[in-house]
Amino acid sequence: MADKAYITPKVLKWARESARISLEGAAAKVSIDPERLKEWEEGGESRPTIRQAEILAKAYRRPFALFFLPEVPRDFKPLQDFRRPDSQTLGTASIFIIREIQQKQAWISDVYQDNDEEPLPFVGKYNINSNPVYVAIDILETLQISPFHYTTDNPIKEWIKKAEAKGIFVSRTSFIHSRLLLDNRELQGFSVIDKYAPFIFINSDDWNAPQLFTLVHELAHIWIAESGISNEIEPDLSNKDKTHPVELFCNEVAANALMPLSVMTDIGINVFDSFSNVFKTSKLLGVSTFALLVRAYNLQKISLDRYRRLKTIADQEFKAFEKREKEKKAKQKGGPDYFQLLVNKNSFLFTQVVIDAFRGGSLEPTLASRLLNTQLNNFPKLEAFINA
Q1: CB atoms within 10 A of CB 279
Q2: Which residues are CB-contacts of 96 (< 8 A; sequence separation ≥ 6)?
Q3: Which of 62, 94, 206, 311 lies 20 to 30 Å from 48, alpha-carbon distance?
């Protein structure tokens, strides 16, 4: 007879509910009736086996030992939700990625403070009452970035590299694992603010241009020290009354950083004579055609009629582009490199810090493996990848 796991019922229930997993969904993972799981959670006579409890711990992404605590533990403080009131409820994947980033951020912040590192001067340098133009200029100057003069045809890579060079950790992924995907309609990005180790997450279930706008939007959150979850980030001419003031401010900062007034003046009004010109210019700036059109309208470079006409074409072109991309992906064999995906998810800078600590003997193997979401036998290849 299998050994029973004498777990604490209320802790078991809390672990499931905090993972946003239904009673039915959790019960299916251990092949039992939902009523049986409910009995376990309510302290009935029956108990899960050790193997069943281990499976549930893995499903909830919690340490197995946690189930035996006498009381529900203190969890990470929930992030401020800056999303619109009608946004989708955060699902299991979103909850898991937020928790994972919070764990990474807490660890690295403790390490830096223990090592007497200096706090980052730009965190909280401004506030929501500041001029968004000045905040945008300060971000560009701090990161040493010149929009319209990128050194790569993929600007988001340049922004991430420059941000991490200044001590800002940037994580990008679209999944927890192959069966638990992130939905960009639910979550586009979030930031965990800290004077020593601020962390940004970007949902990569989107095209590079919206991801870049999300990244700079979250950088604005760091500059005003406002941790939080964001969605529907790119600027919009409608529904402003439903958008949180912090989000409106960070959108303004992102628009001014990615499409500065000086650049918008230089590109000239003739750019907006045709959609093809708008598309070429937006690509050079690393933004979506939609973001460029909104910026042009807000600067009174184009009329509302022209904005609507060009946006209609942009919507049609984007739908056609999406269709082509999906067909292209369906024909592709294989997938992205495992180590590239892993580094993107963990952040290049975070991966480097963890491996250095592990190699230096200050970080135990089990924790190093957990922080980087991979087995120790993958460390040599992972190390070779980041040093390539």
Answers
A1: 18
A2: 19, 61, 176, 180
A3: 94
